[in-house]
Amino acid sequence: MERRKFLDALGAGSLAVLARPEQAIRMREDEERRPLQPPLQSPAGHRDPRIEVSLNDIIWNYDQVKKRAKVPVMAVVKANAYGHGLVEVAKALEKAGAAALMVGKLREAGELREAGIRCPILNFGPYGREDGEAIVVQRISQAVYSEEARDLDEWASKLKTKASVHIDIDTGMGRTGVSTDRALPLIETIASLSSIKIDGVCTTLTEDPEFDREQMKRFMDVWAAAKSKNIFLGIRHAASSAGLFESPDFFLDMIRPGIALYGYYPNVRTGKEDALRLKPALRLSATVVFIKDLRPGESLSYLRAFKVKDRMRVATVGIGYSDGYPVQMGGQAFVSIRNRKFPVLPAVTANHTMVDLKNDRDILVGDEVILIDRAKETGLTADVLAERSGVGDYKLLIGLNPSLPRICL
Question: Taking the model in full, what pTM does it have?
Answer without folding.
Answer: 0.86
